[in-house]
Amino acid sequence: MSPREQIQLWDTAGQERFRKSMVQHYYRNVHAVVFVYDMTNIASFHSLPSWIEECKQHLLANDIPRILVGNKCDLRSAIQVPTDLAQKFADTHSMPLFETSAKNPNDNDHVEAIFMTLAHKLKSHKPLMLSQPPDRDEIRIKPEPKPAMTCWC
Ligand SMILES: Nc1nc2c(ncn2[C@@H]2O[C@H](COP(=O)(O)OP(=O)(O)OP(=O)(O)O)[C@@H](O)[C@H]2O)c(=O)[nH]1
After folding, report:
1. 44 pocket-lining for ligand 1 (C-beta < 6 Å)
2. Which residue among 40, 91, 133, 135 has its CA within the 20 to 30 Å range from the CA of 76?
3. Which domain covers residue 73, as residue numbers?
4. What GO molecular-function term can you cite, just one (predicted)?
């Protein structure tokens, strides 16, 4: 039986006053990124390139799993970001696109399914451990004396 996997999620604050103090913490040892835009707010879609750029600036590897999520698809009459536009953007940046509603679980892709996809991507992804120097107070775990197989996921 495969061991349980644990995913830790960091929701980056949209507000600048929080971002200034928090931003360094967000990018430490990141193994995957979920870019979320508001389907009813074209400005949130247009800000995606700057988020992608920010990830680059913080030296996140280009090949770590990244997915694009359009939220609030339940607000059909207020949609400003058409699916084909978002899909083109996702294709350009080699990301899968999901459209969902955090509010209405019956709408489109379920949030759980999105994170399951991400978990599968992470499992099949090559190791990214120690992309940054370890913290001084980090606990080091001694390896098993005779490992049968190394698993990084
Ligand atoms: N209709 C609808 N409303 C949503 C959905 N997701 C979030 N909301 C609403 O949108 C508002 C903002 O939600 P937040 O979760 O605070 O958004 P946020 O992006 O985390 O905001 P920041 O704190 O600025 O990062 C709230 O009133 C939510 O109830 C959705 O899928 N559908």
Report:
1. no
2. 91
3. 16-124
4. GTPase activity
